[in-house]
Amino acid sequence: MYPPSMGYGLDIEAISGILGSISIACWVVVFSPQIIENYNKKSADGLSIEFIVIWLAGDFFNMAGGVLQGIMPTMIILAIYYTLADIVLLIQCFYYRGFTLRDPKPNKPAHVEDGQASERTPLVPERSARGELQRALSSTDANGERTRSASTYREHLTNLNGTYLSPATPMHPQPEDKDDVEAAKPTQPRTWLQAILFNGTAIVLVILAGIVGYYLSPSTPPHNDNRTDADDQASTLKFSLWGQIFGYVCAVLYLGSRLPQILLNYRRQSTEGLNALFFLFACLGNLTFVLSIFAFEPICARHAHGHWHERSHCKPGEAGAIYARYILVNLSWLIGSAGTLVLDFAVFAQFFMYRNNAAPEAAAPPAVTSPADAFPRTVDGEGRGREPNER
Fold first, then answer.
1. How confident is the model at residue 368 (pLDDT cuts 50, 70, 90)?
2. Cα–Cα distance for residue pair 19/210, rounded to 1 Å
3. Which residues lie closer than 8 Å to 185 by C-beta, 6 or more apart?
């Protein structure tokens, strides 16, 4: 954020420190909602394992590049923490899915075998079944053969399960005690208003924690060997070839990590199993991290007696050149964080689009009905099956 602000209660260094502290607070808690979500559901099907693996690789290169480039110590500490949290998510995926590095393809609706009835069995059969039945009845009417033998009906009746023909018999066994009744009641999902209030409160608390953490931390780090602020700036402006290479590899991995998750959500047509706070904290952490990098005040200095010393005035264009070099040194981290922020908005769009969709694993497949089952049968007092037209 250049040029430096004048006349404000907070200087550029303080603003950068507060934003960096908020970013740290976000990244400290970012993995917790998703880890808890996986544990509660005893499943990690909503999470792309390819997303976690690529993200883990990106965090490794981020950590190595930060060490080689000599970036802020907080960024290196965060990179180490990211790596450990990624490993926890990866262990959850392996535990609930088995050892695999590929995302499972969503299950396609399978047909119910042997015409078994279920709660999702359509009351009206498929059009093809109705067409076959109508053609069969027309042929029967033309030949005058409406009545079938009683033995045929008895044979057909043996294939029916009479338990579910009674309206008093439920499709599932009834719970026997009060505890089972309470457990059988469906839980009411949170409304969008409740979700917004809950997530908004969590974000505000994390932001406050970051601000408080900044003011509780030491105001100035200890300097060794009489190092000046100008010396620190000069060290951060040095290019490290391997540090830059690792940084750009990290940026590519971060950008590519979101694509498997977006693709998995699209294939499933659902975001069930994902926790919105996981991506909300990631967005806020990336946003504040990018802003903390931009909030930099150049120091115009001169080199004398082995140290850099700040000058009271900058030469024309000198401060701008220092700021441009600073951005260039941190460009790979800016690209990775800003690009990931944009892709996270795509995930939020999927949360909105698929908000009413259930995961394909939870959807019951439709049943196959034969043409002979198109019309209901009745059971007479003697227990014999009888067609509607049978007299």
1. very low
2. 8
3. none
